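Cross-posting from the modeling subforum.

Setting up a comparison between two proteins and wanted a second pair of eyes on the formatting. Protein 1 (sequence, then structure tokens):
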Amino acid sequence: MPLRPRASIQGISPAVHGGINYAELEELGIAPAQIIDFSANLNPFGPPPGLREALRSVDFARYPDSKTTEFKRALSTKLGVPLENLLAASGSTELIYLAALAYFEPGDKVLIIKPAFGEYEAASRIAGASIIEQYLVSTAGFRLDVTETKELIQKFQPKGIFINNPHNPTGRYMAQSDLEKILHACPDSLVILDEAYIAGVDNPWSSLGLIHGGNLLVLRSMTKDYALAGLRLGYGMAAPDIINTLSRIQPPWSVNAMAQQAGIFVLSQEKYVRECQVKIKEAKAYLVTELTRLGLLPLHSEASFLLVRVGDATEFRRRLLQHKILVRDCTSFGFPNYIRLAPRTMPECQRLVKVIKEMRRVEK
């Protein structure tokens, strides 16, 4: 009789993400270096200058600091958050799985605001929890109906709630007062607030003062703003009890030595990041103007990326890929008529617009 895995993981499929599918490119005979990637929300200007030199001091023969002490100290200084409220991880995705493993059990219910990052559901189902869904809908401008959220909380008493702010892929940004209403409605639930894209928001409010309430875990990524996706680095902020719980089950040496050193270095490079953000906003404004002229109306986004209605998103992505341009097909989000675009350098954005114009001329 074949060996069977746990019943809770039956039927779980890998989540779909943006970024390059290397197997797909190999089948198409396209080298990854040829691709202009608008599908992943990363700093298109690359890591801060000097990073490679800073990494030369990393000693590969030694284990990394399992407590990430120096990196957390730098993070604490930058954010003004005590060390006991911080936990570094191999990307914020690791923290999603740690939270599910630590707090969710078979029979628990988890509320996910959808569409959502696929790992929220995967982690919850692996833990044996069942999923309650609340969908953002176009008729409400894809904004969260907090009254409905509170009603779902009252009805199902979820053990956990996943909220992405700003929301991916719509770019909608939830007000602090709305989050406070949700936290007040579920004092016995773990609210996981994913702020992976917070740096792209103009004048964001700070969630850091809310972590002391005892049921909020804030997730942030170091890979987006600093272009460190290949190194995997993120962190969580929460009350000490939550941090201690997650720390106890985190695999040792989770954050490798290069990622820790990179994190320490880039935290001192805020001027570079601010300069990049100005250029990204200029590129975003250009895309909004040019796509609107082409009749492809981007949804108003308070994040750095854009959700654009194009008709058949899968076909639109396929045709762009023939021109070595990659966009995010939002079918996996439940939006088969939309793509998501992350602005890149101005010449690359101009190339995208030119190719779309050519595609539309062929259609006529």
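Protein 2 (same layout):
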Amino acid sequence: MKKLFLLLIAFIFTAGAYAQSGTIMLSNDAQSAGRGGTSIGVFNSYEVMMSNPAGLSFVNNSSVNLNLSVMRSRTYFKNTLNDTYGETNYNPMPGLGYVHAAKKNSRWSWGIGGFTQGGMGADFNLKNALYVDDQGNYVRQKYHSQFAMMEFGPSLAYKISDKFSVGISAHLVYSMMEFQMPFGMNPGIMAGEAMPGKTFGQMFADSPAQGGFGYSEVIASANMNDLSVISWTGKMGLAYNPNGKWSFGLNFNLPTKLNFKDGKASMDMTAQFNDAFGKAVQGYMAQNPGSTSSEAMTAVSSQFDAMGINLNQGVAGNYNLNLKMKMPLSIGYGMSFQATSKLKLAMDIIWTNWANAFDKMEMKLSKGTNTNINTMLGAPGFTFNFPLNWEDNVTVKIGGEYLFTNRFTFRAGYAYNNNPVPSSTLFPIFPAIVENHLTAGVSYLVGKRVTINAAFERGFYKKQTAADPSAVQSEFSGSTSGLKTSIGHISFSYKL
């Protein structure tokens, strides 16, 4: 029941989310979203618990806050067999929080909140050269990913002086992951002995002249799910508010380890094995011109049986799955300037250390249920490092807000995030490649206590061509992936 409850929370908060800076949202509240996501040096929203907890010291009023964002993502993929858009997803991403402003003669402020931190995912039905029916028609395969994160916990700020404060956040992190697609691996992973002095990997990789099948990779239909983890992360911030015009902030986000345990995985090598069996039958008939196809199939079946492969048991099995990855360290600097009594300008610059976090996903599969696969692998499981090799990036946000009346505020902003995904590991269900974003928003004060904020954020269409050869698998070599996003935000703040 506890696990079901946590999965429900993850679905509500982060289902299918596309982040805007790698896998990280540009903003966590409609107010900052309207001005390009700037919030490290602007201290007027509960969002500072995520962007700079020291800013709590300069929030004027205690408040209860609720935010709802809805994202529309559009993905695209093209290779030699496909030229198609992925499924269009609409995903709700709520957040909530409470801020307790410092009381008179107190230097302490605090808050508690739950936030959508980010995520990534896509859905395609694609053609793959290996998957064809008896008539030679392609049987489309499901390509699906979903990675989602949310944070929840307290933040605390201490005002060292009237102008300077420090703050920390200690947040629980809940994350979930799903992954499904035809999975390409080097044949060398099959370390089981096929015959004296030769492994199954060598047999699958060797050329037909050497008695092999000539595969550069072997493919299994993989489906990995039921992966979830509860971890923690911390944030440290500094806030400096020297006068009524300028404010400055510095924020450190600590890296987060995500050790997913007790997940489930299935691996089906039927299509790959059928292709290999067909090649073996053709080879036998070429070496024995007078034989019929039935005689060749019987002879090849006997050869596989001698290798310990029982064809009646098929080549599909289930596994226990553990997966390790990390979310990155980041350092952000922000500032704001009250240019006039009505106009405020802001800027954030954030460096994110993706290279030490998204270098790989370490997958460990164990307790395989299919004896044929176990025989070919030489063990009931294996470890595979899925390459990501993301690069460090910098995000720059600029924005402003203009107070038209005492009740109505207009905001606008722009954010640029240089793409962290290298061409060598680009593939269509992890395409976090959007770079340019425009935002606009408004606020309206209802009465004395309630403020309604709304914003719209557009991530402009970005295409990228994968390297040839791809470090992921051959079907992605030279392919093109694309992504664009639109996000609507609305939030409510009630001053206590």
